[in-house]
Amino acid sequence: MNRTVKIAWGSVAVGIVVLGVKTLAWRMTGSVALLSDALESIVNVATALAALLAVHIAAQPPDADHPFGHHKAEYISAVIEGVLIVVAAVLILNEAWQAWADPQPIVAAYTGLAINLAAGVLNALWCWVLLREGRRLRSPALEADGRHLLTDVFSSAGVAVGVGAAVLTGWLWLDALLAALVAVNILWSGWHVIRRSVGGLMDEAVPESELAEMRSIISANADGAVEAHDLRSRRAGSATFLEFHLVVPGAMSVDDAHHICDRIEAALQSEMDGCRVTIHVEPEYKAKHSGIVVL
Question: The Cation efflux protein transmembrane domain covers which part of the protein (predicted)?
Fold first, then answer.
């Protein structure tokens, strides 16, 4: 079991614990804002399960039916997470509307808030783990899970402040208003999760900063070639696919050209983890006098 899958299993476990704690806080107080927080935790568990399935599939090696690997399974998971976030927001808005129409008193507020706060602290710690490891392992599923959990942390903090204010002032409508704000917040989160995932499914190029680094590595390791052009890139989960044309002198032997390609590939894979390189060699008369000039 690789580290990505282990972290995904951890997300499921943390999500179930947090859901139980937040449900207890809601049952003690009757607060619709705390109910909205608990409903969001149900989505956390569902998205953690989706992420677990996705990283398990993505970790499978290439096969005859999937020669480029299974990396895009993580993007599908992230899209599912975004959809579930939207569903949760709709459910929360419905609860908020009912509470607005018929406000209910909040009981055992401070005990319930203390319990909810404990769940929020656990979420914050795990969110930090997910975002750090998601970036390090280049896992869209873990990053999407972490970003969603981050909105849960902020919304839990806002709910705690708002419920406390509702109890102190006696303004019960604050409870419903906070639940609605939680729904809007996670809708915003869902949009960003879906947007990032669709970009991966649509084979967006890697960021310009990474392309600049790739160009520099190619230029520094292509001694003997003339130029490199028509560089194209895309990302699929933890893998980055890069292809370009390498122009060499027309009289150069196939063996020498192959050695240059090997040197460039080794440098790219050493500097950029998960980089898959395809190089098309061309004779000198194909030079475009643009693109990457060999140092």
Answer: 11-202
